[in-house]
Design brief:
The chain is an alpha/beta fold and 635 residues long. The protein folds into three domains: 233 residues, 3-Layer(aba) Sandwich (Rossmann fold), CATH 3.40.50; 177 residues, Rossmann fold (3-Layer(aba) Sandwich), CATH 3.40.50; 56 residues, no CATH class. It has an eight-stranded mixed beta sheet with strand order 4-3-2-1-5-6-7-8. It has a three-stranded parallel beta sheet with strand order 9-10-11, with helices on one face. Strands 12-13-14 form a three-stranded parallel beta sheet, sandwiched between helices. Strand 12, helix 18 and strand 13 form a beta-alpha-beta unit. InterPro entries: DGDG1/2. Belongs to the glycosyltransferase group 1 family. Glycosyltransferase 4 subfamily. GO terms for molecular function: digalactosyldiacylglycerol synthase activity. Keywords: Chloroplast, Membrane, Plastid, Transferase. It comes from Fistulifera solaris (Oleaginous diatom).
């Protein structure tokens, strides 16, 4: 009889679902961001003046969402708070920003000035009625080129950030990788939506250790998004699947109004010219590229395209490259080529008379500040000194300052590493007509008409959107990351090298189509904000399906497990092993900042996670020593 009762219960359950089908498309109140009285916190992992995508785009999203919220509420109240990192260490600020802010107020003034002057939003920049800005303590991890929070970020927001209603996590996986122990985002906020910016799995795969790091990053990122988000938005389909029932693909980014203004200005002066005479031979450069100078950004592909272009046309195409990055010198050497010795006009005699390289002894003496025996003998002969066997090798080495030797050695080997080829591309002999012009605001590059971006590691390339908004040709590969751009008439997509050459030749000899107001609207942040609100919504049917499948309970368990792993000295050790570097000691940082006193010896110390008696045991001492050795090995 048990199976009969189970069958009837299942029929009743299905009938109840069927009876409520009329409401399955309705949006749940928690996820309806167009309702009045909604307060937003936008948490990101980078801040201006670090002009990276995870700093610029969240700042503009917060600004336009602030305007939208004021419009919905018909009020000038502050509905949106931008939560950005405050780099506590001056050396971190110097490395990323090129300048040092002595206070958070100074950096806030910089952000507001940028919003007013560059973004053209003085109303949003107003500290009284505009966007609220909140800083959290953070450190820069140079090995990962990323910023991570220090301490309990949620607790800090709860104390200073106002109502905990809607949270927008920019890069939710990044925010939570090395987070301090504490309550999860979904426990504090009514609704949490994550926006994934970066294809970390792709970057890990391109590394020499990618065979095991890429799957690990993929798994951990999925766990972080499952644990801490109600909904996740992927900017393009190139990203992996994190939580299928939670995710949606939508381009929720826009471009600054000055890019669109330039595109409309070009359209107003448009004069179609369909012949090859439209390409002026006096034009200095055929195309340009803007981006961070990393091989992963497609610059190695650019060299391959240059070689094929020369093979088909007999010459390279000229290009101006804008940007900076840790691999810029290696990239510059690859594009400029390795000069042939025969072309340097060196004869055989001059080759024979070329100076011999230093011996190991000479190099060592030079580093220590001493002279080589031959030099000493020559000096003594000139001085008329007695050249006895004992005076030929005095070894006058200054060992008093070992630090000086260490510094010289570091400089010597650093220069050697910089000069040695890092990739096969640097062994090229033929120079490509490329000019490296440093960092620049893309909006200033109005004179070009062809933008080339061969990268396939991006999630959604902002510079491609900016170039299209300016009314230029963009030449990009057919790839999932470029799906949003393929519908625009000035997007010349290629599937192979031959199509690239054909597209570039066509672009150089024709004028781009004028940007229409309808196309321009799709690039605006107003349109991006509407797409964001649509993408964030969860229907009643989706919510019921999640509850029925038990996914929500599983996600809560993941968050609990992650929190337990991060507690105490054990958590600090695990973060260290996983490569957290300067942000490993989260529990220690919390103890210093938040704990007013220490627990009694016999009581359980929650920060350490071990009783005092166990901490004093020989087993614990041996464990700490082993972990310490392992941590040093992992550094």
């Amino acid at each position: 009889m048990a199976w009969v009762s189970e069958m009837w219960m299942r029929k009743e359950h299905d009938a109840s679902l069927h009876s409520s089908n009329t409401n399955v498309t309705a949006i749940t109140p928690e996820s309806d961001l167009r309702l009045p009285d909604r307060h937003f916190h936008i948490v990101t992992t980078a801040a201006l003046p670090w002009f990276t995508g995870t700093a610029v785009n969240p700042t503009l999203r917060a600004a336009y969402l602030h305007r939208k919220a004021q419009e919905i509420n018909n009020s000038t109240d502050q509905w949106v708070t931008l939560v950005v990192p405050w780099l506590e260490l001056p050396q971190d600020q110097k490395q990323l920003y090129g300048e040092i802010f002595s206070t958070q107020q100074e950096q806030e003034e910089f952000i507001r000035s940028w919003l007013s002057d560059k973004a053209g939003m003085p109303d949003v920049a107003d500290p009284e009625t505009g966007l609220r800005i909140l800083f959290y303590p953070a450190r820069y991890h140079s090995g990962l080129c990323s910023i991570f929070a220090m301490g309990d970020l949620l607790h800090m927001i709860e104390e200073k950030g106002g109502p905990m209603d809607v949270c927008i996590l920019e890069e939710p996986e990044h925010v939570n990788w090395f987070r301090a122990p504490g309550d999860g985002w979904t426990m504090k906020y009514k609704f949490v939506v994550g926006i994934v910016h970066t294809n970390y799995k792709e970057y890990a795969s391109s590394h020499y250790s990618g065979l095991w790091t890429a799957p690990a990053i993929s798994m951990v990122s999925s766990a972080m998004i499952r644990a801490y988000c109600h909904k996740v938005i992927k900017l393009s389909p190139v990203l992996q699947s994190y939580a299928p029932e939670k995710e949606v693909v939508s381009n929720v980014h826009g471009v600054r109004s000055e890019f669109i203004d330039e595109g409309l200005r070009r359209a107003s002066t448009y004069h179609p010219r369909e012949t090859e005479s439209s390409y002026s031979p006096t034009q200095k450069t055929d195309a340009y590229f803007v981006g961070k100078l990393l091989w992963a950004k497609g610059l190695d592909i650019m060299l391959d395209l240059q070689d094929y272009y020369k093979q088909r046309t007999g010459k390279y195409f000229s290009i101006d490259i804008y940007g900076s990055g840790p691999e810029q010198e290696a990239i510059r050497r690859a594009f400029h080529g390795r000069p042939r010795r025969a072309e340097e006009g060196e004869s055989n005699s001059s080759n024979a008379s070329r100076k011999r390289p230093r011996s190991i002894l000479q190099t060592t003496l030079a580093l220590f500040g001493g002279n080589s025996p031959s030099q000493m003998k020559e000096d003594e002969t000139k001085a008329g000194a007695d050249t006895t066997p004992t005076s030929l090798f005095p070894m006058e080495i200054d060992f008093s300052s070992f630090e000086t030797f260490s510094e010289k050695a570091k400089e010597h080997f650093a220069k050697l590493r910089q000069e040695l080829p890092q990739t096969f591309a640097e062994l090229r002999r033929q120079a490509v007509p490329a000019e490296f012009r440093g960092r620049v605001d893309h909006a200033e590059l109005k004179d070009y008409k062809v933008f080339v971006n061969p990268s396939v590691s991006e999630v959604l390339c902002t510079t491609t959107a900016e170039a299209l908004a300016m009314g230029k040709f963009v030449i990009i590969p057919v790839h999932p990351s470029n799906q949003f751009f393929l519908k625009f008439p000035n997007c010349l997509a290629y599937r192979d090298k031959f199509e690239f050459v054909a597209n570039l030749r066509w672009a150089l000899n024709h004028e781009p189509e004028p940007l229409t107001p309808e196309l321009a609207q799709q690039f605006t942040w107003e349109a991006a904000t509407e797409r964001f609100m649509d993408a964030a919504a969860i229907t009643e049917g989706e919510a019921r399906e999640r509850e029925r499948s038990g996914r929500s309970k599983m996600d809560e368990r993941i968050a609990w497990f992650h929190n337990e792993l991060g507690k105490g000295a054990t958590g600090d050790m695990l973060r260290k092993i996983c490569g957290a570097g300067p942000v490993s000691h989260q529990a220690k940082y919390l103890q210093k900042q938040l704990m007013e006193g220490e627990s009694d010896e016999g009581e359980e110390d929650e920060d350490d996670g071990l009783s005092a008696k166990f901490r004093r045991s020989s087993f614990a001492e041996a464990l700490r020593a082993t972990v310490g050795d392992l941590s040093l090995f992992m550094q």
